[in-house]
Amino acid sequence: MGRHGEDGVRPARLMDPWLILFGFGVGILVGTTVDLGLAATILIGSLPGVWVGTHLATSLPERGLRPALGVVLLSSGLALLTKAGADIPAAVIIGAPVALGAVAYLVLRARPPLPQPPLVARTDP
After folding, report:
1. pLDDT tens for residues 9-65?
2. pTM score, two decimals?
3. CA pair distance 61, 80, nearest whole angstrom
4. SS3 state of residue 60
5. How far is 17 from 32, CA to CA, in rounded Å?
6. All structural domains of the chain with their residue ranges
7. What distance in Å separates the CA atoms of residue 119 and residue 16, rounded to the nearest whole number?
């Protein structure tokens, strides 16, 4: 049994979404004007984040990852609202995720650790 699910993520499960995204990408390239230089810099800039995120997701417990993801989503959402024209002060954009992160940290420290399931010998066919 894996840490993050019964089967884990297998390449075959990722093939269908990859094909759909590839089809959309080809359609956008053919049908619209795409700044390939900008797309390349975004891709290159996202690779370190993917590498770090993959490393953290496999080494940190789920108990800490969920609140961290919530803080990241809150800060991304607030930043997007300001891009859409909402008048949100910078103190709120920075302060709300920091406050939420602090509350999540304190709540997690106050809770007792979850009991670990017993280790069972794996028998692969």
Report:
1. 566 666 677 778 788 888 888 888 777 888 788 888 888 888 887 887 788 777 888
2. 0.54
3. 29
4. coil
5. 22
6. 1-59, 62-113
7. 33
